[in-house]
Amino acid sequence: MRKQQGCGLLRVLLLLLGVSVVCTAALGTGSHRLDHRNHKHRHLGHSLHKHRQRTGKEGQVLHRSKRGWVWNQFFVIEEYTGPDPVLVGRLHSDVDSGDGNIKYILSGEGAGTIFVIDDRTGNIHATKTLDREEQAQYTLTAQAVARDTNKPLEPPSEFIVKVQDINDNPPEFLHGPYHARVPEMSNVGTSVIQVTATDADDPTYGNSARLVYSILQGQPYFSVEPQTGIIRTALPNMDREARQEYDVVIQAKDMGGHMGGLSGTTEVRITLTDVNDNPPKFPQSVYTMSVSEDKVPGEEVGRLKAKDLDLGENGLVAYRLIDGDGMNVFELTTDSETREAVIKLKKHVDYETKRGYSLKVEGSNPHIDSRFLTWGPYKDEATIKISVEDADEPPVFIAPSYTYEVEENAPAGAVVGRVHAKDTDAANNPVSYMIPRYTDLEKFFSISEDGLITTTKPLDRETQAWHNISVSAIEIGAPELWLSQANLRVNIKVKDVNDNPPELASNNEVLMCETVSPGKVIETVSALDKDEMDHRQHFSFSLAPEVAHNQNFSLTDSRDSTASIYVLRKGFSRLTQDVYFLPIEINDNGFPPMSSTNTLTIRVCSCDSKDTILSCNVEPYVLPAGLSTGALIAILACIVILLAIVVLFVALRRQKKEPLIVFEEEDIRENIITYDDEGGGEEDTEAFDIATLQNPDGANGFLPRKDIKPELQFPLRPGMGRSEANSVDVDDFIKTRIADADSDPTAPPYDSIQIYGYEGRGSLAGSLSSLESVTTESDLDYDYLQSWGPRFKKLADLIS
């Protein structure tokens, strides 16, 4: 068959649960129905061969449109659990005469595993249970070939097997459980949230995926739209303050909600959010508070708070003072953490002047919801009664502070000034004064009972120009002195007196070149004075009388508190004289005038042609302050020599080699172990283990080497074996082992002395074992203890 004939030569019968298959033939615009009767298939197939082409009247060749059967879609029901494979359909070709020469081949998705074909009859069976949710359709290809040659008899034809859905999947809420919020007091029908369920069944087939929503829990507060799953409020005026959370259960059922449908549920937790629907309210209409008259402005007097059942900004309350005679004396603030109204003192209160105040406070919501204005007003008022309590107030100074002046060097007892304080209480107690010592550690001042401050010693302005002391006024007769005490700062300025002579501003040496020219200024000097200088006061300079006519230097006063030093001659030599001392007299022109003589040191230095100083020969003045360079070099050289000697000594010690042969007199190490218990003698076999003395290796007498590992193993001596360990002659056994150890090259290079509790054969002392001591009492004679003196008498009496 040619390919142009398409599937016309390959007919298909679909036998599935007695349902016929519709195929459409492409014959012009017409259509034909394919049923189960085979003669119609043969007839239609025959017509395809008979009318391939026709010839027109004019000899034209008329081509007829091609025909092809559309049979490429089959159905098989999912989840079939019958005992036999499901017959999907049957393939049959027009060239199949029924003699078995035609073989049908099936390929594509699931061919050979899920779908199998009888190659003789063309019957297609599904061998496995199909699940539409895993795969909805399979694409297969069928072809008829010659059985003997496998040569295609028709072109391959492709068809689709669709898995027909059944209602085997319940609805599922993939995003549940849900959490939703809705404002309290919402109107009926307010949308809360939309829940959505999914059904894995085919939505295009039947009602398997047609879902209907219903509410199982949450009525009568909420409802759900059956088709959309939108949850809405069902009751008006739901109050958050009464109930805040609701648990709603929503069901989704397929099959349009009819009997037999599958269902799934989800939980929705709906929380009512707050709105400002409650006004603030003070728990009390009148509050009483008290404040002591000794409180300072800014201190807290009391607190009050209005309650609001709303949350967040809806529950915020703003407070303000709206009336009362204490509005200028008290102030109101709000605590940001506790949201309380805080009443604080704004001004001092006096019990003797006014003993009570009244305030009116308003608390209101700053954020008001316009929907609930009719539920207002959203504010409340309260009255505060504040009483002033009497307190024992400290004395009060007439002036806030005092500043006095006193001349320096004034004699002790000089008057500085007077302070005054009084008791403002009704008792008007007398007041005493004192100077706290921590403010006047040197005790320069004292104060009398009436507040007069005097000096106790002369003051020096240059040491301390200001004295800042505290004066305490104490109410006499007060029950608690520290509560009836007032402190005041007194500032005392020490007036200057010209009592210090001027000095040179710098004590540095003046460096001068040997080649200095006469008339050259080598230095400009200035002065300092510890006393205060008047703006018209200046220093004057002159040479001391004893050097006024010297031939080396001169001084010129510049009359601006400076002076210039000039050179009078040339030919200075530092070898002849390297230092010159020039006394200068300085006068401060004060009242009284003060003067002093200061010495200017001039050092002669060696300079180059550009008057750059090269050397001033200052080493003799520097060396006494420390070690010279030569001394440091000598110390370092000694240290290096000592280190070299130590290194050489260590190297010589390392080069000294130990002898290769270990001589017995040079390498004897002893390991003496002392025990405080008495041995049991030769018959005490539990004192030590004879087997530990056995050494299977022998020796031939060579001395051991410490620098090499023994390579030769020497045989045991004749007659040495395990039987010796059981020999009764222990003395010979030990001697033999000692000889073997001495001649064993593999033994350690030292001897280990071990002591055994064995006296040897023929010992005069006999055995020390206590085992034989208890065998008989006839041999025990302790009479000799009587002759040992009174110390052993008690022991002799016990034994005898």
UniProtKB/TrEMBL annotation:
Gene Ontology process terms (BP): adherens junction organization; calcium-dependent cell-cell adhesion via plasma membrane cell adhesion molecules; cell migration; cell morphogenesis; cell-cell adhesion mediated by cadherin; cell-cell junction assembly; homophilic cell adhesion via plasma membrane adhesion molecules; morphogenesis of an epithelium
PROSITE patterns xrefs: CADHERIN_1, CADHERIN_2
One GO CC term, this protein: adherens junction
MF terms in GO: beta-catenin binding; cadherin binding; calcium ion binding
Residues covered by the Cadherin domain: 93-173, 174-282, 283-397, 398-504, 504-622
Compartments it resides in: Cell junction, Adherens junction; Cell membrane
Positions of transmembrane segments: 631-652
Signal peptide: 1-25
Keywords for the protein's UniProt record, in alphabetical order: Calcium, Cell adhesion, Cell junction, Cell membrane, Glycoprotein, Membrane, Metal-binding, Repeat, Signal, Transmembrane, Transmembrane helix
Membrane topology: Single-pass type I membrane protein
Main function: Cadherins are calcium-dependent cell adhesion proteins.
Protein name: Cadherin 11, type 2, OB-cadherin (osteoblast)
Source organism (scientific name): Oryzias sinensis (Chinese medaka)
